[in-house]
Amino acid sequence: MKSLLKEIYSSECKPLNILASLESLEHHAIAGTFPPQILESFKTPKFQFSTTFTNSGDHQASLVGLENTVSECRGSVLARFIEMKKMGLETYATMLTIRAFRQKIEATVKTTFDTLNFQGVEPCPEYLIKDREDTFTNGPSICQRATIIARGDCMAENARKKRKLQHKVDSDVTMTESGPSDITKTIRDEMEKMFKK
Length: 197
Known about the structure:
Elements (H helix, E strand, L loop, with lengths): L1 H30 L4 H6 L9 H4 L2 H39 L2 H19 L9 H52 L2 H17 L1
């Protein structure tokens, strides 16, 4: 039962993580940007050319064409990633439903109690029959509770990540708006605080 509940917990967390990743990829697609994984994998190659050609208009036009080709490739890869993430969500939706886990629990309990029934030589003790009935009765609600906990944990984790990202963005904006002397002063103040501790 414990392992099944862990599996339920995991099956709820993973789709939420996939959904968050999918939303991030779709945001990139709408904005016309690319995630770091794609940018790192598909860079515009650098080649050496003669100074005469490098300074020519043909070279500049060729570079623009090369950048466009690389960008199209990145776009195709991003579209494929989005498609694969959606397929992953569909897999979870069809294969790892709460109903499927309830059936697993019921099958596990039935097998266990059939084994404990002493192969039909003796009747199953009353307390075992009661335990089995309780498990069948409470199993679905236990599954549901595990699902709620998993969703709550994932939502809390996603909210924490968003707060952290927003704090970083706010900090970056503050640092950008500050002059060099302000940034230096901020760093010096932080260093002084550290040494005073």
